[in-house]
Amino acid sequence: MAVLTRLAVNGDRLNDSINRLARIGKQPSGSICRIAFTPETLQARYLVQQWMIEAGLAPRIDAAGNLIGRYAGRFEDAPALGTGSHIDTVPSGGKFDGALGVLSGIEVVRTLRDHQMRLNHPIEIIAFTDEENTMIGCQAMAGTVLADSPERYRSKSGEPIQDCLESIGGNWDEIRTAKRSRSDLAAFVELHVEQGAVLERTGNQIGVVQGVVGIQRKAITIVGQANHAGTTPMDMRQDALVAAAQMVLAVQAIALKMPSHPVATVGYVDVLPNAVNIVPGKVELTVDLRDLYTDCLDEMLQLLHQEIRAIAATTHTQIEIRPLLCVEPTLAAKQVQETIATVCQQLGLSSHSMPSRAGHDSLEIGRFTDMGMIFVPSQAGVSHSEAEYTSPEQCTQGADVLLHTLMALDNLYPV
Amino acid sequence: MAVLTRLAVNGDRLNDSINRLARIGKQPSGSICRIAFTPETLQARYLVQQWMIEAGLAPRIDAAGNLIGRYAGRFEDAPALGTGSHIDTVPSGGKFDGALGVLSGIEVVRTLRDHQMRLNHPIEIIAFTDEENTMIGCQAMAGTVLADSPERYRSKSGEPIQDCLESIGGNWDEIRTAKRSRSDLAAFVELHVEQGAVLERTGNQIGVVQGVVGIQRKAITIVGQANHAGTTPMDMRQDALVAAAQMVLAVQAIALKMPSHPVATVGYVDVLPNAVNIVPGKVELTVDLRDLYTDCLDEMLQLLHQEIRAIAATTHTQIEIRPLLCVEPTLAAKQVQETIATVCQQLGLSSHSMPSRAGHDSLEIGRFTDMGMIFVPSQAGVSHSEAEYTSPEQCTQGADVLLHTLMALDNLYPV
Fold it and tell me: B81 to chain A nearest CA, in Å?
């Protein structure tokens, strides 16, 4: 009697690949150092490329150094369905961030091949170049790279981007050729570890990502008057730290009053002269605002400016604000989100809709085509550390969701 | 026709002395470096001793190295009336802090001698040892020096106090003999620059000091949880900086609600890891509370502990507090304060009652006898800097108030 079984990835094979890749760049501490353009990352690219070939993918490298493995579809002229992520890490990274997305993509193709299956659309597995620093790989694909300003894209160790790209088979002079469009990449789905604790805390197995948040990051300088902490009466002070404390609380309050649950952080504070017995004369601090919606970011900035004016007036300080970083948010395509959620239901996995508040390659890819992301839980929300952990079972669940999502999208998008 | 003139110091002579002393230890920047026990300070002591002798004072050096010049009274067995201050400076000091008090005392005696006058009481002009660091001179006189713990009293450059005292004619082994009592020092009046801007701001010429404030200084450690500033939702944070901001504002609010106008300062803040995109996990900060009244200091500390409990609870952080410094306040004698105020009226000088919120030798002397202090304005409140400035006229006014205060006290205290 035949039992009807649902197609599933080979979890052992996937987790073997994750562990095998994690040996490259492994540090004595247990963390992984695979900074883009280093020999370790080149070694990792070589291994992944071999796995692509063994899985029946045809690999190529575009001008931005993106490693792209293509699994032919029944209709080879149809736009591709893309998946992938990155295999570079931060200097002390974990083994799941990025790697899970690339290796799950390969595992999906291995699974299809095990069953002699092809989709209507070609599948592309993409390992993007340098996600953790310049994001040049995904930016080149989105056409947002500044082709006239190579000096903006130095490697972590300061090498010119031209040399960096050449070392991995790319070509800066041709960077524009890496640009893709909706007509050749119909949709892109990235599987990634959450890097936060929302899934763990809410007890969900899969995160259905609503989009990748935008960032407004500002530097704020507060100038008061340094003075003797004994001889300066309270009403004669221009205490820059009192103003800074009001700013810290105002930033928190601004985030809490917005309905879309943005995050807002003062992470850096520098006090001058920073002495026990001197009223602080100057404080530098940073504000980092993140949300899925540009409207919300704009409103938070407006409120921040209001607070700055009010606090400067009441504390008799001068407060200046200047931009450090501005990243526009990218929303996930509704159709892709709904597909992921439906797949979870079908697979009996609990899911939770949530924004991605960390940056990802999908942030850029979503600027020109339909994008979606699948999150799996990060233990205690830890990432960018040797303590980063997602269980083998959770990795397998994520890869299964990716497999069935691509299969479902294959039916939704015209060939 | 004879004109009745009031006795007055010789302002030119006083200011000449101030300027002459200021040449010793003068730095290229214009600041003065006469750290206790250095050759420069020895040279200054030598000069001041010569001036004492020329003014008719008999100098001696006690076991704590205090230089004490005595001007005989009509009743030589009567307890002395003391005045003076210190001639050591901070590493980059000004020429008035301390020096004004010692040199005005000498000028008062010069003036009396010009007119062949003696008071009923002997007068003692005291140049205390190392006011800016160990305060060993005034502490030895008050009997508060820790005679069994010489290691607590190293010089600024780390030399043992035994060697330091020997170099200026003192003797650590005899330190207890420096102790004085009300029976041999009936009252002590110190003239000093304000080192704050209250007189300048209120437009008064003389400050009648109500006492020297006590200090309660604490170190506070706030432990939260460092986390990704993007992926950690606001309601899952244990943000140590948000807790610190609440502490800074609570410390300010505590001072503002007390009727005696204490001061309270958070001057030092250290944030960890202090990165733009990480929710702060740990903050160290200091709290410095100063007031004239022990009751007020105690109440402020109690409120501080309440705030710590409340803030720790609402921010989900752990907050620890530990003592850094505790100095008991000393009140000026009512009789001395009233005498100074009356003298100001008689001399046509405006005066203002105020606490001294900086430490002074009088803090210790007031622990065993009647103490009072006379303040003259500091331009813009600046001190411990080459920009420290009090005009020659203001110095002269201070010395005149000192002269007439000592003359008035001479009549108030029994011989």
Answer: 28
d(CA A26, CA A299): 44
How far, in Å, CA of B384 to CA of B32, rounded? Answer: 9
In whole angstroms, give the CA distance from residue A412 to residue B319: 55
Whether B11-212+329-412 and B214-327 share one fold: the answer is no
pLDDT at site B2: 45
pLDDT, tens digit, 9 for 90 and up, residues B257-291: 999 999 999 999 999 999 998 899 999 999 999 99
For A2, the 3-state DSSP assignment is coil
ipTM at complex level: 0.85
| Contact predicate A190/A330, CB 8 Å | no
Band of pLDDT at residue A2, cut at 50, 70 and 90: very low
Spatial contact of B172 and B382, defined as CB atoms under 8 Å apart: no
SS3 B406: helix
Q: Identify which of A64, A33, A34 has the alpha carbon closest to the alpha carbon of residue A164.
A: A64
Angstrom distance (rounded) from CA B225 to CA B240? 7
Q: Which DSSP state fits B295? A: H
Q: How far apart are CA B32 and CA B113, in angstroms?
A: 31
Topology (CATH level 3) of domain B11-212+329-412:
Aminopeptidase (3.40.630)
- Give me the pLDDT at residue B4, please: 52
**From CA A68, how far away is CA A89, in angstroms rounded?**
18
- The shares of helix, strand and coil residues in chain A, as percent rounded to the nearest 5, are 40, 25, 40
Closest CB from B241, B267, B381 relative to A231: B381
Contact residues, chain A, for B233 at CB < 8 Å: 196, 198, 261, 263
Backbone angles phi, psi at B226, to 5 degrees: -65, 135
Q: Mean pLDDT, consecutive 10-residue segments, chain B of 415 residues?
A: 73 98 96 96 98 97 98 96 97 95 98 97 98 96 93 90 96 97 98 95 97 97 92 93 98 97 97 93 97 97 98 98 95 98 98 94 98 97 91 98 98 96
Q: Are A229 and B277 an interchain contact pair (Cβ–Cβ within 8 Å)?
A: no
B44, B34 in Cβ contact below 8 A?
yes
Give per-residue pLDDT as tens, B57-81: 999 999 999 999 999 999 989 999 9
Nearest to B263 among A233, A288, A359 (CB): A233
Asked if A289 contacts A264 with a C-beta cutoff of 8 angstroms, the reply is: yes
Say whether B277 and A288 touch across the interface (CB within 8 A): yes
Q: Would you kindly state where each structural domain of chain B is located, as residue ranges?
A: 11-212+329-412, 214-327
Q: Does domain A214-327 have CATH number 3.40.950.10?
A: no
